[in-house]
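Sequence, please.
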């Protein structure tokens, strides 16, 4: 096979490391929600409590969306790498088929016509 411009093994390694670092994000998101709710409940100011709850309502969907985008991006990169490998294999097979056809045609003298325009003489 030919030389890769990209190295699928390296891509897989990077994507796996990315996924490992994404996993704690969900736990941290849940902890943030719990801690902000506790802080809002425990504070003595209704204004501060309301602000903390509102902050949690604003931040939580953004954190969830960020995690979802990262997961979708890594899934897409995995799929793209698979398509790249499949296309490379397909191109390799196509080149081998053409090479076999060319070798067979050359054996039978079918590649170039003679001076009279006839093949195989």
């Amino acid at each position: 096979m030919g030389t890769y411009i990209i190295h699928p093994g390296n891509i897989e390694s990077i994507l796996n490391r990315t996924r490992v670092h994404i996993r704690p994000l969900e736990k941290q998101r849940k902890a943030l929600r719990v801690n902000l709710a506790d802080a809002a409940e425990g504070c003595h100011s209704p204004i501060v409590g309301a602000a903390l709850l509102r902050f949690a309502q604003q931040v939580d969907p953004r954190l969830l969306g960020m995690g979802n985008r990262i997961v979708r991006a890594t899934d897409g990169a995995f799929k793209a790498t698979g398509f790249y490998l499949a296309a490379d294999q397909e191109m390799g097979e196509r080149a081998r088929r053409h090479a076999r056809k060319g070798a067979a045609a050359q054996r039978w003298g079918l590649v170039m016509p003679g001076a009279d325009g006839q093949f195989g003489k």
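The two ends are 36 Å apart (CA to CA).
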